[in-house]
Amino acid sequence: MRVSVIPGRLISESLDVGKLIGAIEEGFRRADAMLEPRAIYPVDGGTVLLMSAHDSRYHVLKYIAIYPRNAELGLPTASSVVVLSRSSTGEPLSIIEGGLLTAYRTGATSAAVAKRLAPRGRLTVGFLGAGAQARAHAAALSRVLAIERAVIHDPNWGRAEELSRFIREGLGVPAEAVRDPDALAGESDVLVAATTSRVPVVRWEALAGRGDKLVISIGWLDVHSREVDEATVLRSSLRVVDTYAALEEAAELREPVRRGLLGRGDFVELRALLSGPPTSHPGGIVLYKGVGTPLEDLFAAEAAYEELGGAAEAVDL
User: Fold this and answer.
1) Which among 219, 49, 52, 21 has a CA at the least distance from the CA of 139?
2) For the chain, what percentages of helix, strand and coil (3-state, to nearest 5) are there?
3) Largest Cα–Cα distance in the chain?
4) How far apart are CA 157 and CA 162, in angstroms?
5) What is the radius of gyration, based on Cα positions, of the chain?
6) First to last CA, the chain
7) Which of 9, 122, 241, 279 has the maximum number of C-beta atoms within 10 A of its C-beta?
8) Alpha-carbon span 317 to 307, nearest angstrom
9) What is the pLDDT along the chain (317 residues), one digit of tens a residue?
10) Is residue 192 a contact partner of residue 219, using CB atoms and an 8 Å limit?
11) In angstroms, rounded to a whole number, what is the distance separating the alpha carbons of residues 202 and 287?
12) Residue 15 in contact with residue 307, Cβ under 8 Å?
């Protein structure tokens, strides 16, 4: 059995982010793309997830392990591997490093949302968290928004400075690290929360009365994590989720729904947003809570395989 192996290095150096955004948008419009329920297993020290989806051409299976204490060991918080197979035969075609693919597909999905729901004009984009997800979001958002300035906060000042330097030198956008996360949230037109926090870092008090905003929250460690406070969830003018599964998997959404404060009709799924007519920011605070869906992995793995598979090493298993 011969398969291509696509390492993270090849993804970071050669994957076209603009094409990936297009693949996400086109994928969600395809009726043949289907997903299976995500399996989530709490394990000692972390959480393991298995994600599966398919269309008429390909099937994808992703293993991802999230271990928050890995940061203390100098190891990645999340590790994953993606296997892409031919739908018609089940024959494995490619093994893809999943960490960077996940970061880039998440950033590309957020960019697809931002194209439709970010405020208009030249924007300030704020980042709470300065890891791989924030970097991927910066790269993707710079493709679809007119970013005038970026501001970054991370408890690790060195990481915040490093992301600032990447945005300045790699993307050509003025950027600076800041100490106050609430001040950052207030001045940002688009706020990206990409943290490993289990308690809210996005607070309504920092957002209210500070103009129209798009809040993108993609930090997720387990089903108990809350990156956004309840007031922001309840008072947002529009709420977007990957799929309705987020209403069970994201604690900040699950609790208001459980208590009857919100229902399924108060949320818009990505498929409906991206396959519907063009939309614009409705005013106020728009919240996109992304916990990921296997469909995003499918569309990203397809794009990576078709773009990079020919340049990847092929091995016999």
Assistant:
1) 21
2) 40, 25, 30
3) 59
4) 9
5) 19
6) 5
7) 241
8) 22
9) 889 999 999 999 999 999 999 999 999 999 899 999 889 999 988 999 999 999 999 999 999 998 988 878 888 888 999 999 999 999 999 999 999 999 999 999 999 999 999 999 999 999 999 999 999 999 999 999 999 999 999 999 999 999 999 999 999 999 999 999 999 999 999 999 999 888 999 999 999 999 999 999 998 777 788 999 999 999 999 999 999 999 999 999 999 999 999 999 999 999 999 988 888 899 999 999 999 999 999 999 999 999 998 777 878 78
10) no
11) 11
12) yes
One-letter identity of residue 24: I
Nearest CA among 295, 290, 294 for reference residue 117: 290
Question: Residue 5 to residues 95, 166, 280: CA-CA distances in angstroms?
Answer: 5, 27, 40
In the block, residue with structure tokens 């956004």: 228
Length reported for the chain: 317
Tokens in use for 277?
A: 């007519």
